[in-house]
Amino acid sequence: MSDYKYPTPSLELARFVCSLRYDSLPVQVVDKIKSILLDGIACGCYGRTKPWGKMVYEFVQELGGKEEATLWLTDFKGPAVNVALALGTAIHAFDYDDYHKSKLHPASVIIPAALTMAEREGGVTTRQFLVALVAGYEVMIRVGLSVNPGVSRLKGWHLTGTCGVFGSAAAAGKILGLDEEQMAWALGIAGTQASGLWAFNYDGAMTKRLHPGRASQSGIMAAILAKKGFTGPIRILDAEDGGFWRATSDKPVPEKLLQAIGKKFECADTCIKPYASCGSNHAAIDAVRAIMANQHVAVTDIEKIIVFTSRVIKTQTGFDYLPATVLQAQMSLKYAVSAAIMFGNVLPEHMEEKCFGHPDMRRLMEKVEIVVDPEMDSLYPEHFCSKVLMITKDGKRYQVRINDPLGSEERPLKWDDVVNKASNLLRGIMAESHFNKLVEGIKNLARAEDEDIGAICKLLKI
C-alpha cells in the first residue's frame, strides 16, 4: 500500500471493511442480516413481475454477455455488473424492501452486489458472503448518516442512489478480496458515479425503482476496476473541491461516518417493512390502525384527519395532489392513511388503481391534512414519527402518536413475521416446497465453516 501522509475518511472505511471477519459479528447482527436477505430476495422475486421490473430484466437479457450470475427465477446468466442492475431494480420495484433511518433502502443495493459477485467468483462461503453483506450495509448506512440525511434529501437527492454506490463497492470489494488501498480506490470510483434525483415524485415516473440497481451496478464496476489497479480518489468524501459531502449536503456530519464503527452495527437497526408504502408513512399508518381498531370509527363518520409530522416527510410524501400512478400511491401519505382506514392495512394488493383511484377513496383522501409539527420535526430522522388526530362528524377527537413504526429496531418484525411476508409475496410465483427450501437455506446459513453460498444461488434459478 502507498505511504499516504495522512488517513482519509475513505481509507478508514476501507480499513474497516478489509478487517471485518465473521467471528467479529454479534449473533443478533447475523440473525438480522439473514432476515434482511430473505426479505430482499422475496421482494426481488415479486418485483420482477411488475412492468418496470420486467423492462429492466428484458434489457439485461438483451445485453447478453459472459455467464457469471443468475437473473432470479429465469434460466439466464449474465455479467454480474448487469444482473445486479436488474436485481436491484426488482427488489425496490414495489417499495416493500427494507429501509434505514438514514433515508436508505440498503437491501436493493447490497444483496445484488454481494450475491452476483459471489456467484461470479465461485467458492465463496456463506460466512464470507454474510460478512460482505454486513460490510456493504455498514458503509452505505454510515455514508448516509454522514451527509445528514434530512438535509441531503431536501436538496433533491435520493440517498439510496447516491450513498448506495459506496456500499455496493464495499460488498463487491470484500468478495474480491481487495486490499485496503484497492478498497479505498473502489470507494472513490464508486463515489464519482453517485446519482439519483427525486424528480420522479411529480409524475410518478419509474426512475426511483432504477436507482438502487444502478448503484449496485456502479459499485461492482468500481470494485472490479480497483482490483485491476484503476485508481480512485482517496478523498472522495472529504475533498473541499468535488468531495461527496460538499456536493450532496449543506450540513454534513463527518463524525457519524466512523462513530463506534466495528462496535455498533448499523445494519441491526434496519427496518423490515410490514406495509407496501414509503417508510416515512409507516408511523401514521400505525396510528390510524390503532384508532380504527380501538375506537371502531365508521369511515362515513370521519370529518377530518390531521397528520402531524416532520418537514422532510411532508415534503417527501405529504404532497397535495392525489396519486395517479402506483409510485405516487406508495409515496402518498394521504393515500397511506386513507388506505389504512378503508382496508385496515396497506399491502401490495392495495396499490392498484382500482383502490387509489376509487371515488370513495379520493373523497377520503381529500379529508387528510398534513401539518409540520415542531416536535416531530425535532425528532426526525432518529425517529420516523407521526401523530394522527381523527375528528368525527359529531365532534369526537381521537389522537395517537407513534414515535417508531412497526418494523423499526424499536418494534422489529420477528423471523416468523418475515417468513410470512415472504410467503405472501411469493405465493403463485414460487412453489411452496421450493420456498421452504429457500427459507431453511437462509435460516441455516453459516452453520458450517466451508458451506458454499452457491447453494442459495441455485435455489434462485427456475
From TrEMBL:
GO terms for molecular function: lyase activity. Residues 12-252 form the MmgE/PrpD N-terminal domain. SUPFAM superfamilies: 2-methylcitrate dehydratase PrpD. Residues 275-434 form the MmgE/PrpD C-terminal domain. PANTHER family: 2-METHYLCITRATE DEHYDRATASE (PTHR16943:SF8), 2-METHYLCITRATE DEHYDRATASE-RELATED (PTHR16943). InterPro entries: MmgE/PrpD_sf, MmgE/PrpD_sf_1, MmgE/PrpD_sf_2, MmgE_PrpD, MmgE_PrpD_C, MmgE_PrpD_N. Belongs to the PrpD family. The lineage of its organism: Bacteria, Bacillati, Bacillota, Clostridia, Neomoorellales. This is 2-methylcitrate dehydratase. It comes from Moorella mulderi DSM 14980.
